[in-house]
Write a structure and sequence with these properties.
Number of strands: 10
Radius of gyration: 19 Å
Number of helices: 6
Mean pLDDT: 94
Strand content: 25-35%
């Protein structure tokens, strides 16, 4: 009888082609499926809670697999998979779940964190883990402006086209939290779901507000009339500073 295994996966996305399987076989999904196939001696499909782009990291991505047999207890699966996976990908924990569980469709929300290094010099250990913004940012203005994202809005003007147009671009942002510790600014978004590049576009807008190039009224305009600005050039913050923190069920 097949068993369903839930995995919590952490990865440094700097050297991978994102989450979703790619022709070059260097996506997180590819490496997980390769490790499972080597253990199970047959192909095993991995289903993730959502896709992260190339260069984006995860502290706790969630996935599930439908195993051909129970074979190992959860702790043994962690050990076996990590023995094959690249060091930059790690299964942190796993457990067996009911057949009704689905990593993507059972999810109730996600939390993303974006890190900005606001100083003249980027320390080498922050490379690929933060967006280096040299010019001073008005942190207080960014905090005030971030509140405009909270609530239920049409985020069409804060998303990019992945190839297939989204049928529904309305999302709920429950909270946006900004913290500053020295030169490091972290922005945490908690919501029911996120569109393609939505977090990175919101961050880029907040940074431009911090640089006094935009105001909170620009956010209001884009959220209030998304179709009027949807055709304009939209810029996303670099992927380096983005982390998927958790998936809520």
């Amino acid at each position: 009888m097949r068993s369903r295994l839930k995995l919590i996966v952490s990865y440094d996305g700097a050297s991978f082609s994102g989450w979703q399987s790619q022709a070059n076989r260097n996506a997180i999904q590819d490496h997980l499926e390769n490790a499972l196939q080597r253990i199970c001696s047959e192909p095993v499909r991995v289903h993730g809670a959502g896709r992260t782009d190339a260069g984006v990291h995860a502290l706790a991505q969630c996935a599930h697999v439908h195993l051909p047999s129970r074979r190992y207890e959860p702790d043994r699966w962690v050990y076996a998979l990590n023995g094959i996976l690249p060091p930059a990908i790690r299964v942190m924990r796993c457990r067996f779940v009911s057949q009704a569980f689905h990593a993507r469709f059972s999810a109730k929300g996600k939390t993303y964190r974006y890190r900005i290094w606001n100083a003249a010099v980027l320390p080498p250990f922050e490379n690929d883990r933060a967006w280096h913004v040299v010019n001073p940012l008005d942190f207080d203005d960014m905090v005030v402006a971030a509140k405009e994202f909270c609530g239920e809005h049409d985020f069409a003007s804060f998303s990019a086209n992945r190839g297939t147009p989204e049928t529904n671009t309305v999302r709920i942002i429950r909270a946006v939290r900004l913290r500053r510790a020295g030169p490091c600014i972290s922005i945490e978004f908690d919501g029911d779901g996120f569109l393609y590049k939505m977090v990175r576009m919101m961050v880029e807008t907040l940074v431009r507000i911090g640089l006094n190039k935009l105001s909170r009224q620009d956010i209001k305009a884009r959220l209030g009339h998304p179709q009027k600005v949807i055709s304009r050039g939209r810029i996303a913050a670099p992927p380096d500073g983005l982390f998927l923190v958790r998936v809520r069920y």
